[in-house]
């Protein structure tokens, strides 16, 4: 029968679909073209759009006379994401204090401009941050506005010098700022401060290693007073 139909209707569309049984539904050429266009558009919509590159964060130039060394991008982003995670997990007020770490402040505000962050810094160039800047001299650890006392759930500190005296005084500032009870403390400083950080604040080192844009020779560590779990490389096991 298929051969007879071909002969009787030499110009029929059966010449195009001669392998299809008569009982199968047949689409016109116009419908096939429309279907092809629809499927093409559907395939395009399934292709994932490339994620935009994170915006670069502009900072003032480092002043080595003030012992300023900015974090590299991976370090700043990693620590900033950790702070944001802590903010989301807190049930109460999650104000953040950044002691002498303007890189972190800048990245936090870049990721979430609404997050309440206070930058404590000696360098008055950062007055450009307005009310979120507080002048801070570690030699006067508690000479700060009274409203800042015990006001911060999360405190991050990067003491400008790797000395015992500097860390002791920054510890006083951290105690002044931290809320009573459960507060999250993060300290970025040299490996040489490991024992002092444990003695003064009960901090332990994480597996994640902070790095600086200036490629400092000193080995730096990130210490916390809480177990970060799988984040930040976890708490490093004591040797």
TrEMBL record:
UniProt KW Cytoplasm keyword: yes
GO biological process, one term: methylation
GO molecular-function terms, A-Z: nucleic acid binding; protein-lysine N-methyltransferase activity
Protein origin, superkingdom: Eukaryota
Region ranges (Disordered): 1-24
GO annotation, cellular component aspect: cytoplasm
Annotated compartments: Cytoplasm
Keywords: Cytoplasm, Methyltransferase, Transferase
UniProt xrefs under InterPro entries: DNA_methylase_N6_adenine_CS (IPR002052), Efm5/EEF1AKMT1 (IPR019369), Mlase_EEF1AKMT1/ZCCHC4 (IPR041370), SAM-dependent_MTases_sf (IPR029063)
EC number(s) given by UniProt: 2.1.1.-
Family of this protein: Belongs to the class I-like SAM-binding methyltransferase superfamily. EFM5 family.
Function statement: S-adenosyl-L-methionine-dependent protein-lysine N-methyltransferase that methylates elongation factor 1-alpha.
Name of the molecule in the record: Protein-lysine N-methyltransferase FSB_LOCUS17958
């Amino acid at each position: 029968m298929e051969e007879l139909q071909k002969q009787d209707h030499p110009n029929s569309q059966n010449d195009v679909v001669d392998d299809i049984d008569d009982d199968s539904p047949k689409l016109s050429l116009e419908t096939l073209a429309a279907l092809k266009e629809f499927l093409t558009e559907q395939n395009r919509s399934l292709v994932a759009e490339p994620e935009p590159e994170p915006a670069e964060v502009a900072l003032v130039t480092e002043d080595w006379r003030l012992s300023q060394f900015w974090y590299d991008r991976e370090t700043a982003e990693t620590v900033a994401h950790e702070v944001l995670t802590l903010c989301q997990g807190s049930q109460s007020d999650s104000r953040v204090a950044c002691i002498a770490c303007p890189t972190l402040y800048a990245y936090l505000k870049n990721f979430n401009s609404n997050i309440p962050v206070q930058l404590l810094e000696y360098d008055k160039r950062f007055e450009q941050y307005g009310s979120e800047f507080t002048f801070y001299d570690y030699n006067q650890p508690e000479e700060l506005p009274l409203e800042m006392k015990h006001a911060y759930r999360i405190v991050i500190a990067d003491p400008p010098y790797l000395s015992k005296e500097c860390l002791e005084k920054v510890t006083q500032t951290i105690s002044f700022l931290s809320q009573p009870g459960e507060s999250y403390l993060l300290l970025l400083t040299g490996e040489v401060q490991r024992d002092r950080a444990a003695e003064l604040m009960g901090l332990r080192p994480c597996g994640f290693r902070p790095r600086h844009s200036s490629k400092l020779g000193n080995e730096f560590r990130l210490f916390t007073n809480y177990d970060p779990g799988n984040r930040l490389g976890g708490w490093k096991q004591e040797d």
